[in-house]
Write a structure and sequence with these properties.
Length: 387
Amino acid sequence: MRKKLSVLVGLAVVLTAGSTCFAETPTAAVSAADTAVAADVSNDSGTSLTLDGVLGSIEKNNVEIQMDDQKILLYQRQYDRDHQNAMLNADKEPVNFPAGQYAAVKIAVDVTPKQDEQNIQDAKHDRDDALQNLKFSAEQQYLNAINAQDQITTINAQIANVDKKIAQTNAKIQQGQLTNDALQSLQVQKSQFEASLNTPRSQLQQCELNIKQAIGLDLNTDVNLVLPESKEFVKFDDSNIQSRIDGAVNNSYDMKKITNNIAILKIQQDIYKQYSYNDATGEVNTGLSIENLQNSLYNTQLNLKTNLWNSYYSLKNSEDLVNTENIKVENAQMNYDNTSVKVKAGVLTEVDLDSAALALQSEKISLKNAQDNYRIASEQFQYNLSK
């Protein structure tokens, strides 16, 4: 335990103040310094997972994506059947059918294949959208798990540091320099640290379960998460955000899908007008469907715009959190520097310096977590602007 504490303290000493990028921290994750492996590796201690490996295996192994692939195949088969049927009836004329029956044949030739094509496009879009969102979620779960491991390591080191303070205090009590009351605050502090372990432990367990579920891995499998390469923190460029959101809404797939469905129904409506004779049921029902879709254009546009603005302001809140965490790191760095000076002057002990170093380490872990969450939120928002 002392060795682990010394490593943490040594790392904290070399951390610079005011940094906007999180320096590498000690972690319970497997080190990725000498590995570029993106695939999973099994060994006696469990299955080692890399972030790239997790993201790469979702498309192949995720149950939701597999079901979407099957849905696309079913739509494709439906299209093949309907297209073949359309080819067989393409040269048929109204005179070959009783009055009112040719409309159904014409719809099967000119409308049904187009509807099938639209269904295929919709299923492919939904599948790709689900895949991308699963990757965003898996990356966040992975980084949160790494962060939880770092928190656990640091809290355990803080507990060890308090134990050292308790030992020093006991020695002074035995020498008559202090009374037993001096132990109370340290014991409370230790209890608080021990209780605080529950949150990152629970988070780690939940994140690992989510990761295993995302890649179709047995939930009982033990996993070791390889520490991913750090990425530079970059703020989202929100210049011209109004026009970018408006453009994203107007060019969104959802709007195009509705417009295309309206066009297909208008073809169907024209067929009913021309070939239904005295039966207006098909024409009326199709007209109502067209009106419903036209009305849904406004609601869809409004919902898309509202969701994008909500995502944008959520991203700004995440940016504010990063700024707050940066200030906390700066304050912790100042405290560490001041403590270091006092230790050299003989006013404080090395144990006090260890406490300051661990407090700095804890704040840097929180900063890294805020930066990771912001980066993923930024990437997801940019994706939503383009889909």
